[in-house]
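Final report, results section. Input specification for complex C-07:
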Amino acid sequence: MVEVTGVLMEWAPYLLGGVSITLGMVGIALGIGIVLGLPFALVQVYGARAHRICIGAYAWFFRGLPVLVLLFLFYFGIFPALGLDLPAFMVGAIVLGLRGAAYQSQIFRGAIQSINEGQMTAALSLGMTRLTAIKSIILPQSLRIALPGWSNEYPEILTDSAICYAIGVAELLTRTSQIVSVTYITMPIYLFCAVIFIILNYAGMWIIQKIELKVAIPGFGAGAG
Amino acid sequence: MDTAPFITTVLVPALTQGLVITLQLIVLAAPFGLLLGIGIALGRQYGSRGVSVLCKLYVIFVKGCPLLLLLFILYFGLPSVGITLSAFAASVIGFILCNAAYNSEYVRGAILSVKDGQMVAAQALGMTRQQTIREIVLPQALRRAIPGLSNEFIYLIKYSSLAYMLTVIELSGAGKLVATKYFAYNEVFFAVGLVYLALVSITTAAVHILEKKVAVPGLIS
Amino acid sequence: MGPDDIVLRVEDIHKKFGEKVVLRGVSFSVKKGDTVVVIGPSGTGKSTLLRCINQLTPPDMGRVFLHGEEVTNSGAKISYFRQKIGMVFQNFFLFDHLTALRNVEIALLRVRKMDPKAAREKAVYELDQVGMSDWADHFPAELSGGQAQRVSIARALAMDPEVILFDEPTSALDPELTREVLEVMKKLARTGLTMVVVSHEMGFATSVASEIIFMEGGRIVEQGPPHILMSDPAYPRTRKFVSQFADLAGQRKE
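Structure output:
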């Protein structure tokens, strides 16, 4: 026990570095996911047929493939073929982000479609352009509606980020495995890693819940009723 | 590299072998994942306080912890406490544990959505608590849970690829080996991806049929 | 009376949805300060007619003029016309994520690009006009149907429209709430606002309308001042429709 505590203390900074790499990947991935997912959703609702089909195919592809296969495909295949020599960390963040965009576009699309058509009608009747109506009326509402579904993206991307172990990103699980192979202490170190992941998971969800309450208004989400 | 012989003599046989292993993993994990998931949901909802808390902790742990880490614990960690599993067994057990945790959430949500009146009416007819749960609550709840459960099944298909990280040469692993040996990453991983897309699409279609088959008027799943 | 007094002119509007012909050539005009009430059985294209006027539903044929300027085929200028042609909907369509005040304010800010302070003042004023200033900070989900409809009237008023189209403004309300909305509308009529109202409220039509238009099957069957149309309609169809409502009104009084 003493030995284990000592080892953990000794390796704690190394693990913390892994935590920051994990969170960095998750942060970038969430960012890519929302930056692409939201316009994709708008295209799927308001776009031309051809564009809708393209986005639909994109979502089908990224949602249908295992993260592991996507990582292999991009890390060993697509990026090198494009002449891009990206570090594993970036490949991990981008793949998780592109995949997140596929899921998020579905979440946002559902939210946009759930908004009564009358909101757009009323906005147009006041002389708003479609773009203004989407910006000032449709999006503020659909983002609130999407938030509960969107908040599931964080734990999903966080746990998926561990799969980047497979392409050698020095994230939390990779570093944990390295420590295990150096110290030959297995269970306590794995469990310690699990606890860190669980804390990151629930701490993040707690923060998202706080945001949800903050932006809640009567008739929407957490403030409904 | 000549494309046609590569596909017929190398890629297809390798991926077929991998696919067989992938299907074995799924077929073994899915039913137990479902049963354990229902058990955990019932334990959380109807169990004693102790059982309920244990079930909840289980779900928190498994959902909060990456599946890959869970697999490492089972395969690399357990030998240190005297339990040694084959890579295949560790994978199947890991998938069951993970699948069950997520399934239990859907089943529990569906149980909560069954109206109180159903329970009261059953008990008014003299049914015991167990009978009520088995005859009335679960049949309704499971129908409602179908979309969520089938979603988890699709996740299981995709995440079965992680068995490769424990050296099980399933579909992704078979692809990785071929891709590395012949230096044909794009071709091979697209092919592997297509197989997964086919599995996922077939499942989605099958779920639609199942949903129609078990549909009861007025009970929206 | 010169053509200058004509605020809105509708010429030969046709509209069909797929195979279903909804409007078969509707023409009428509205003079400044008039309240035109459009009545008729449901499904005769009254709401579609209103939506054709401000191009929310572009008509297949026919033209609409506001003060002699063509609204139909006006391209990007449609935003200008929609500001000048207000609309009030059966189901209010208040913006659900905005307070009552913000609902009135938003188009002033985003469409008319008014200075925030001036927009706020104007929004407060318009809310006061409909008796809703005490509810300024409430969200639509917190308002009764009647209150929501009054806010939506204030929202339309805020754009200083030349004419407001009311699409069955009280159909979603129970009698108690209907009255508070009709009171507001009567007040607006008295202050000289030009209005086109699709409504089943015969009492309102009789007491407020300058002209009643009876529509059926996508056409105007008959039109005229209320005392003639309600008491001595020329066509049997109008007679039948009006008498049904007279019966209903009679029952309600008893």
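Chain A touches chain C at residues 116, 118-119, 121-129, 132, 136-137, 140-141, 144, 217-220, 224 (CB under 8 Å). Residues 2-223 of chain A form a domain with the MetI-like fold fold (CATH 1.10.3720.10). This concludes the modelling results for the funded period.
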